[in-house]
Amino acid sequence: MAEEFEPKIVAFLCKWCSSAGSDLAGVSRMQYPSNVVPITVMCSGSVSPLYILNAFNKGADGVLVSGCHPGDCHYIKGNYYARRRIALVKELLEYSGLEPERFQMSWVSAAEGTKYTEIIKDFVKILKPLGPQEKLRRSQ
Amino acid sequence: MQKILTKKSFPKWVANLATYQIYAPVEKDDLWSYEIVTADEITTDYPNTVLSPKKITFPQREFFLEFSQNDDGIPGVTELLPEEKESVIFGVRPCDAKGVSHMDKVFGGDFEDAYYWKRRNQVTLVGLSCNTPPSPNCFCTSVDGSPHSTDGLDVLLTDIGDRFFVQTFTKKGDRIINASKGLFTAPKPKDKTDVEKVHKDAVKAMPRSLKDTKKIPPKLKDLFEANLWDEEAMSCIQCGICTYLCPTCHCFDINDEITSHSPLEGKRVRTWDNCQFPDFTMHSSGHNPRPDKASRLRQRIMHKFQYFVEKYKNFQCIGCGRCISKCPVGIDIIQVLEKVRDHV
Amino acid sequence: MVNLDDIKKEAHRILKEKKVKYIIGYTQGANGFPAVPVFIKNPEDADNLVWNPACIHNLTRFLRDEKKRRAREKHPDNRPVGIIVKGCDSRAINVLLQEKYIAREDVFVLGVSCEDTGVVDEKKLAKKLKGKKALCFDWDENRNLVVTTEDGKSTINADEVLAERCLECPAQSPVVYDILFGDKVKLSPEDRFKSVEKIENLSQKERWAFWKEQFDKCIRCYACRSVCPMCYCDECVVDTISFAVTADTTAEEKAQKIKWIDKSPVTSETYIYHMIRAIHLAGRCIDCGECERVCPLDIPIRFLNKKLEKEAKKLFDYEVGFDPDQLSLVSSFRDEDPEDFIR
């Protein structure tokens, strides 16, 4: 029986909110799929589209960008910039033919460990039927 | 040998070459390029392709070797010589074939490039004589070429109405004719006069010319430091189109492309490089001996019309006119060379 | 109507009075190219200027070279550069002003209006002429292109040969200029983003198939990047080496330049190059169409940038190139920016 496909998710989590939220999930022993490679960034506004494309290039099946709720950004405005930039990246990726389900953005605060686990659980469920991401992955 | 092949028998000949991979110019969305085809897709009525047969004999990307780490972390390297099927390229313009022959000089000679030749030896070039100029910027006769030149070709076909006049020049050429002996007949005297007329008319119809080309190589040497290059390169935008489309440009870059970091896995890859790119001669110190557009344009022209002449006694430019037709800002190599030739 | 003699007279005047260093304009090319860029330094040469429907090049691209030239000279000549611009090109000047890449005093803008026509797509024209060479062509008063070939004259309706972006143009006459030739026009096209909708309406699989076929043609000549007036970065994502180096740059700094994509023209690397270029041009691209015109393999690059121009307008009410004092698209935000895609 063939091994079931386990999608690899790269998650860019802002240090002050989302990364702390994922830590809370861990500390509280919440069960959620281990398909995530978390990368802590200082702010969701610092996530360059290059990082997202590079994650796909290195073989990520799904990419998540997560930051503080509007109004809560540690750097005041970073997440507002992210809201705009990620919207553009999402539109472009969808327009050029990448499955739109592969790229997500969320607001996760430091207290929302449960929300984080929900997001990951749902993301893995959506990615499994899509199969491995071959379009942008560097190969041969 | 010289033979006649009727146009009706042409598809049968191609069909008999089933063991070979057949390339010919095909059109998609108004763009002509060499692709793998079946016999009925071959046409003899086409302008020149955007990319020359260089993309088959010297593809833009080829592998040298692959490296990997086994479970104990010990690295291993395997050479990856190209394993290409034998192929025949139909419809090669004589200028492009001369271009292949120039590249053979560069990759052959004292040191043979094993990767180039492993691929090159599998290719048979069947030329199509230019009855009408395929481009409004053709000038092959000015650089020691001609619309029916045989340099670099294994076979040359000349279209004389309802049939082709077939000439072979190499063993490879003979082989693909002999594989279908029955389809070819001996030429009659009228065939030969028809061919001569077609060839003569083609030379007369050459749209552009560059006179007194012999004066150019020594003049170029003298003009290395001249202001001429700054002026000619004013509108150059460093796009690199002239170099990538040129049938004789052959500079390349070698990079290691990693597909996995741990365990380490990757391939060493050769790709085309472009002397018009600003980082082509950039040193790791930050110094760039060709820091501006003028020096890079000068380099390209001198390579074609002076350095190659010095080394191989031939103009490297084959007069296809692609760089003139596709330059976004209208820089015309013939115009530049005329200025060089007439410079006081 | 645009009077070429007026343009020549003004060009002659500003060169004679030494108001500008040189003028970037259009002239007749070699071998019958109706228009190519030219750099005019002497007042007498102002007579070589042309203005015709083949003046498609975006000359603001050469402002980059001027800036580099000044940076190299020990005692730079700080007079402005004269430049002939169409409506679309003038928006590029506004973007360069917005980004403080050039100062307003660095350019003397000779704006020329396209009035109710525009520039001709040479590929469309060649198809219409079925291989015949166009010796000369110009617009008549009825929006027809009058073409002279070796067989004589013929007329073609403007909408059949205009560059596709001219049909979607929001600025038919220059929005910034020091002197304007021709009538000021502001026609609003009924659908500025029709070309983008064609692709949006395909299914996801069809969209991928379309773009994959296009990107597989790409030979990574970077002509699209080289011709773009906004691609002026010294350190570009696709270059293997940074040009922003000095004698003081350390070896570690040089070694740390990240190699984002491989040089090989394979689908994944080419795709990422085009995506990242489109994103870096979001809110900056003014749709001069040069990237698509110069592509030797006829890849429809303009559609990528146009999509983001549409989203900038639709999602963020952002217009590119009309206001040199506005903030850049990605360094600003509004409270009402949509967030329905965020969980």
Structure commentary:
The complex is a heterotrimer of chains A (140), B (344) and C (343). In chain A, 37% of the residues lie in helices and 16% in strands. Chain A has 140 residues and is an alpha/beta fold. Chain A has a four-stranded parallel β-sheet, sandwiched between helices. Chain B is of the alpha/beta class and 344 residues long. Chain B has one domain. Chain B has helices at 10-16, 54-57, 94-107, 114-120, 171-178, 189-204, 216-222, 228-232, 241-245, 293-312, 322-326, 333-342, and strands spanning 2-6, 21-28, 31-36, 61-69, 75-79, 87-92, 123-128, 155-159, 163-168, 252-260, 265-272. Chain B has a seven-stranded mixed β-sheet, sandwiched between helices. A four-stranded antiparallel β-sheet of chain B has the order 5-4-11-10, with no helix packed on it. In chain B, strand 8 and strand 9 form a beta hairpin. The longest helix of chain B is centred in the last third of the chain and has 20 residues, at 293-312. The relative contact order of chain B is 0.16. Chain C has 343 residues and is α/β, with parallel strands linked by helices. Chain C folds into three domains: 1-117 and 171-190, no CATH class; 120-161; 192-337, no CATH class. Chain C has twelve helices and eight strands. In chain C, a hairpin with an 8-residue loop joins strand 1 and strand 2.
